[in-house]
Amino acid sequence: MNPPAANPDAADLTLDVDAIRAETPACSGVAHLNNAGAALPPQAVVDETIDFLRLEASIGGYESVDREAERLDRMYGAGARLLNCEPHEIALTTNASEAWWRAFTSVPLHEGDRVVTGRAEYVSNAFGLMQAHQRGIEVVIVDDDETGQIDLAAVEAALDERVKLVALTHVPTSSGLVNPAAEVGALAKNVDALYLLDACQSAGQIPLDVDELQCDFLSLTGRKWLRAPRGTGMLYVRSSVLDSLRPPSFIDGYSADWVGQHAYELQPGSKRFELFETSFAAKAGLGVAIDYALDVGIEAIEARVTHLSASMREQLAAIDGVEVMDHGPRLCGIVTFRVAGHAPLAVKTALGAAGVNVSAGALSAWQVGHDDTPPAIVRASPHYYNTEDEVARLVELVSEMRG
């Protein structure tokens, strides 16, 4: 395919990239183009996480939580600002998959109900859909349209009174595609279906407004575009749907109160989806990471990421024997490609040896409804702290492989 031409005017020139790189020490030693895997944290996030861990070591874990409750609660306010929701609608999780599963298993699905989804679901989400199918729930798989995004007309045609849930991945893990999530949300509301949006690969690089998206659930991770510590994630649950949901499948003494020998009461709000034990140091770091991204500006981040990735696609496509795989009317910071004569893992290894980080894997974690094994690809994912020179370095190394 021929990717859209790069538009130099798309880069937000208000970003002080040099200053941002100075606040990201690892930038001096590596061209990190694997942000769809795990991004480099800014020094402020590193300091916050380590400082809290040191506090636990000096006064005790429980005591640190008691003393620094306001500091830890920063994450909820930051998450609310990121998603345009209320802090009580945010739950801390360890990752996006856990968040997705907590939401999915709370939806009251019964035999004969229908779930509508798309072709490019993430693998852990796909397992949930498979299990639902095994319980007699019909999983309706909607094809992509001619542009490569989920077919909105087909979504609308699939929606009827039997549909209880629409599940969509906003940005597939191995594609630059951005699915039309808000349009899908509007269609789901037409039949009063719940809407679960996987924003694992969009949170931190694309503005997210849960009211505009019209989603009832949104799952995200911290380690990718938000530049937070690993082992962090969040689940948004719209407060107006809480009473219609099943209790979370796994609760503890934090999720609920034991009020009688055979009775318990769930926590109000989305904290019923949280558990007592977590990494509080990582939780503190997540709050700082979200605030850092908001201070930079999600719109400015998206503009720069879009510019760098479009430039990368254009330059790679110009190399004989390199196939850029991304397709869709709206593309983001994930760039997938194949190099003729070179296995994707070999390309990743060679680039890594030259100080350029990328990843390699299947074209899609799960092509829903496809029995064929998808081809492997190389995935590069520039962030706003990356430079045009780093993009050019990757292109140069790929060109040398072909030469």
Task: Describe this structure as you would to a colleague.
With 403 residues, the chain is α/β, with parallel strands linked by helices. It is 37% helix and 16% strand. It is built from 13 helices and 15 strands. The strands form 4 sheets. Strands 2-8-7-6-5-3-4 form a 7-stranded mixed beta sheet, sandwiched between helices. Strands 11-12-15-14 form a 4-stranded antiparallel beta sheet. Strands 1-13 form a two-stranded parallel sheet. Helix 2 crosses helix 3 (61-67), helix 4 (69-83) packs across helix 10 and helix 11 packs parallel to helix 13.
Order of helices and strands: HEHHHEHEHEHEHEHEEEEHHEEHEEEH
Number of helices: 13
Q: Can you give the helix content as a percent range?
A: 25-40%
Going by CATH, the homologous superfamily of the largest domain would be Type I PLP-dependent aspartate aminotransferase-like (Major domain)
Q: What's the CATH topology label of the largest domain?
A: Aspartate Aminotransferase, domain 2
Sheet with the most strands, sense and barrel status: 7 strands, mixed
Using only CA atoms, what is the Rg? 21 Å
Q: Please give the CATH architecture of the largest domain.
A: 3-Layer(aba) Sandwich
The first-to-last residue Cα distance is 21 Å
Structural class by sheet pairing and helices: alpha/beta
Work out the strand percent: 15-25%
Average of pLDDT: 93
Globular, elongated, flat, extended or rod-shaped: what is the shape? globular
